[in-house]
Q: What sequence folds into this?
């Protein structure tokens, strides 16, 4: 994630269910979310004390809290960000959105644009199917972006494929990224 750009503001929002999944993972790892407090500003410290799942939170707050989680976890931050994405998929796709998970990856990812709008109010997601066991997710039109989110997204896509019992090996690779100056983020997936 070296030499990657980032554009953060206070306009773009994500659903609090995403944040709650990340905080749940952190609480299971650390036992106490107060360990994150020294790494965040006052607004994010309030979010650590709780928010409704139906609420919207700033994208920049999600990124700041994810960085705090990675700092407390130690080790390579990208590994933590990917695990947060995996855990978010298990939590969110295993709950209210479990109807989206079927053993049909192409169908799931094609319908993912609906989920995209449920979890964030910015950018678009589209899917291009490849052969029977490959496809690409294209995220575009993002006014705000971060390499933290890209790593988390890769983990989310990996876990979604696992939940669909894709035969594997499952590989999700970001081949193009706005954070690196590309016009869109492209995730190549094989299974």
A:
């Amino acid at each position: 994630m070296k030499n990657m750009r980032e554009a953060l503001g206070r306009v773009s929002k994500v659903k609090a269910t995403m944040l709650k999944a990340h905080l749940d993972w952190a609480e299971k790892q650390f036992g106490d979310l107060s360990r994150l407090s020294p790494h965040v500003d006052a607004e994010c410290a309030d979010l650590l004390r709780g928010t409704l799942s139906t609420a919207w939170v700033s994208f920049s707050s999600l990124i700041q809290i994810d960085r705090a989680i990675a700092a407390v976890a130690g080790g390579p931050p990208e590994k933590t960000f990917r695990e947060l994405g995996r855990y978010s998929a298990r939590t969110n796709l295993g709950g209210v959105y479990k109807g989206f998970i079927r053993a049909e990856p192409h169908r799931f990812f094609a319908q993912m644009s609906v989920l995209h709008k449920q979890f964030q109010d910015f950018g678009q997601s589209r899917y291009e199917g490849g052969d029977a066991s490959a496809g690409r997710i294209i995220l575009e039109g993002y006014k705000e972006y971060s390499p933290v989110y890209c790593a988390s997204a890769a983990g989310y896509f990996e876990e979604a494929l696992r939940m669909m019992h894709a035969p594997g090996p499952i590989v999700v690779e970001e081949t193009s990224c706005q954070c690196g100056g590309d016009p869109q983020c492209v995730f190549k997936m094989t299974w």
The radius of gyration is 16 Å. DSSP finds six helices and six strands in the chain. The domain at 13-190 is CATH 3.90.1520.10 (H-NOX domain).
